[in-house]
Amino acid sequence: MNAGSFAIALTGPSARQPADRAVIAMEQSSPWSSAAHSHAVAASLGRLSLYLISTRAHNPADTRGCAPSARCMRTEISTQGERKMDCSKQRKTAVLALMAAMALPAAAVTPPYTATSLNPNLHRVNDAYQMMQHNTYDYGASLAGWLDAGHRAVELDVIDREDWEFNANGPYVSHDGSAGNKNCSGNPDRIGHCLNDIVGWLDTHPGQGPIFVYVDMKASWDPINAWYDSEVRLLDEKIRQILGARMYTADELYLFASGQSYAPGRPGLRQVVSAGGWPLLSSLSSRVIVAYTGGRIGATNQTHAGGIENIMAQAGRSLPYGFFCPDVESTPNQIVPGGTVDGVSNATSQFFVCSNLKARDHYQIAANAAHTHKQLMHLWDSHVYGNGDYVFNYIALAHGISAVGRDSNVTQTWGGAIPLAGVRRSLPGYFELRPTHVAGKCLHVNGASGGNGNRIDLRTCNGSINQRFVYTAEGQLRPRLSNPYCVDISGGSAGNGAYMHLWDCDGGASEKWVVGADGRFRSVSNSQQYCISVQNKGAADGTRFITYACGTSLHHQQFELAPVADWPQTTF
Questions:
Q1: Cα–Cα distance between 264 and 54 in angstroms, integer?
Q2: Residue 517: count of CB within 10 angstroms of its CB
Q3: What would the pLDDT profile of 476-489 be if each residue is shown by its tens digit?
Q4: Separation between Cα atoms, residue 467 and residue 480, nearest integer Å
Q5: Ranges of CATH 2.80.10.50 domains, the chain
């Protein structure tokens, strides 16, 4: 999307009106040349990932951009741009600048499918994804070498061994129960050595950062006695002591997102971050964001909850310094404001703005919820595809994962198609499939409802639910028409000339498709040798879709992906 510039007027809402009742008008300027086009854009706000966050009375204590004496109407829009405020006492209309970068592509994505690189002056922390080497401390000559290679996230495992609380550098960095010489500057390495290496790198690379550090609490040394609530608190305090003001804290985020400091009785961190989001990346250069995963065996989430509760019970303490990331599953109820994390009270759940997700069926639902509510989400392990594969990384970033854990010791970008740090959901996970050899045509599922054997053919694009698909964590193409059904292959096996149709999703290889940066979708059936193809390169409505050997010149096999708005997936 060529951003150009245009203004958005929020006309008439009082401070008490909900944001979704604000009247949105758009004043045209380049690149749009008509009011009609502006209204069309306004009608497509979901697709453009433009949404009004809040219109509310300005808190006098919040002086960001306003004179303390002014009673301001504060209006915020999240478009990966900075927050703007109208500080006039009388004005009821706030005019805000729309920034260039949008999280969801506004136009169709054409081959090669390439994610958007980050612009720290336009993108916020919650807009960003990071590729992260699993157990980063175990690979490469040095931890700083991963930062030199372009990574901005690392994972450090720590073990609750010996009285680490009394050591200036804190606990050992290790996956198992033994201490050892890893790739940090200590011998044996403790977390302080690794964090100081990161700080040293930031000192020699001004303007870089923030660096994300995922600290995984391992119970491998003494599983029964590892990570009591007080030890989790001491870990958080130790990391703060080591990093000092370099560490971006939950208290700072709360103040940024809400305009006031946290106090008992005020909304939880989850609610205010969902409304206000995170700061611009550029405002956190040279800073470190620490997120905690792991914990006691069989009680990971209880470890996180107990740590938070212990921290907040201390005299003079407010929120934790770092951000706790409990384990979640594929459903969004553990992520949304007001939702409850498994094994945690509802009240404590409201202080999580990060989660830890093992790759699994349907994980795209939870990932999209995390993105919507501006939370961090770490994805680990492999599922159906290896986490070093393009398809795995495409699916992860398309659905809003913010940290993708990779197991292979390789810095892979597929020729720059997926940067090591980029914009979440800058590749579509919900889209129309449009063959590139003919304009205005879409892959279409016939029928008024889902059913086994429904024909799939080429039709003029009409925006219907028969032409919209979600690309799932398993690589399925499920139509909005009926979520329990998948784009499948007649006979259940890919081959030259095999017709495609709709069939109930049963987990078979014939319903899974491997997206490539080249714009092709390869069937998992028969070793990914066959691709979705427009038969005989036809352009007429009713032309059939088949599978055929990838790379053929007989049938068209490349597609542009036109992003569409999300929809709830509740039945499988």
A1: 22
A2: 19
A3: 999 999 999 999 99
A4: 8
A5: 430-563
Q: Which residues contact 522 (CB under 8 A, 6 or more apart)?
A: 513, 514, 516, 528, 529, 530, 531, 550
Bridge partners for 432 per DSSP: 562
Q: 3-state SS of 203-233?
A: HHCCCCCCEEEEEEEECCCCCCCCCCHHHHH
Cis amide leading into 188 (omega within 30): yes
Specify the amino acid at residue 410. Answer: V
Q: pLDDT averaged over the chain? A: 86
Report the pLDDT value the prediction gives residue 465, as an integer from 0 to 100.
Answer: 98
Q: What is the DSSP letter of 63?
A: -
User: Across 319-455, where does the E strand assignment appear?
Assistant: 323-324, 327-328, 354-358, 376-380, 403-406, 421-423, 430-435, 441-445
- One-letter amino acid at 482 equals S
Which residue do the tokens 């923030």 mark?
210
CA distances from 545 to 445, 452, 493, 497, 530 (A): 11, 16, 14, 9, 12
Q: Are 131 and 283 in contact (CB under 8 A)?
A: no
Residue limits of CATH 3.20.20.190 in the chain: 125-423
What CATH homologous superfamily does 125-423 map to?
Phosphatidylinositol (PI) phosphodiesterase (3.20.20.190)
What is the Cα–Cα distance from 255 to 269, expressed in whole angstroms?
10
Who's near 170: CB < 8 A, 6+ residues apart? 158, 164, 190, 191, 192, 235, 238, 239, 242
Identify the bridge partners of residue 230 per DSSP, sorted by sequence position: none
CA distance 523 to 520: 10
DSSP secondary structure code for residue 282 in this structure = G
Rounded CA Rg of the chain: 25
Q: Which ranges of the chain have pLDDT less than 50?
A: 1-104
Fold that domain 430-563 belongs to in CATH: Trefoil (Acidic Fibroblast Growth Factor, subunit A) (2.80.10)
